[in-house]
Design brief:
Elements lengths: L1 H16 L3 H18 L2 H17 L3 H16 L11 H17 L3 H17 L4 H17 L3 H13 L5 H6 L1 H13 L3 H18 L2
């Protein structure tokens, strides 16, 4: 039976990759029915997540949100060993899905609320520094989108304060650098805006991004 669940899950993955979302959802729902019968909470949680992602790709945002929360609920259920079915990483990933969905919907305040939870959980659980920095500057960008430039600057500066532990971090830092240029331009501080935008442009032009 578990083999059938895996097969239907794989069908879901294939159809999602092909952009055939109704067929993908059918595969995932078949897999879910098997995992639920087997009381396999962790794989069931991930099927809910795959369904949420498929609805997100199909721009069925409300459905996506419903299934992200169903995935969270499943991961928080207790197993026979009296532990949560999902790990901290599992629940954090679901929150990141919610963040992305709310952002696509233009609900930036809600996206900020979710992203702050992700950052808090990631910091407390020593998530990878690159991931933490990305979440940090995304919070800043959403604050910029809602016009809260002071808060945006705080989180852009926090992102830039992460140590340059690897080349990925060094490259990614030029996003908040460019956004700071936009922020200062919005505030009428044109000279400062030009400094940041030139810095970002010089790096992107040099590296071919």
């Amino acid at each position: 039976v578990e083999g059938k669940a895996t097969a239907f899950q794989n069908y879901g993955h294939i159809f999602t990759y092909q952009g055939k979302y109704p067929q993908a959802l059918s595969g995932y729902l078949e897999a879910l029915s098997y995992y639920e019968k087997l009381d396999k909470k962790h794989p069931a949680g991930w099927i809910y997540a795959h369904i949420a992602k498929t609805h997100l790709l199909a721009r069925n945002f409300e459905k996506a949100i419903d299934y992200w929360y169903l995935a969270l609920k499943k991961f928080r259920e207790r197993t026979d060993e009296s532990v949560s079915a999902g790990s901290v990483r599992d629940t954090s990933t679901m929150f990141q899905g919610l963040y992305l969905t709310y952002q696509y919907m233009g609900m930036f305040e809600k996206a900020i609320e979710i992203a702050l939870k992700v950052l808090d959980v990631g910091t407390k659980n020593n998530f990878d520094i690159t991931e933490l920095m990305i979440v940090t500057f995304k919070i800043g960008h959403n604050y910029l989108l809602v016009g809260e430039t002071d808060s945006a600057k705080v989180y852009f500066d926090k992102a830039l304060a992460y140590p340059d532990a690897n080349m990925d971090i060094q490259a990614l830092k030029y996003r908040p650098v460019a956004w700071l240029g936009n922020l200062y331009a919005r505030n009428g501080e044109i000279d400062t805006a030009i400094v940041y935008l030139k810095k970002a442009y010089k790096w992107y032009n040099k590296t071919g991004f």
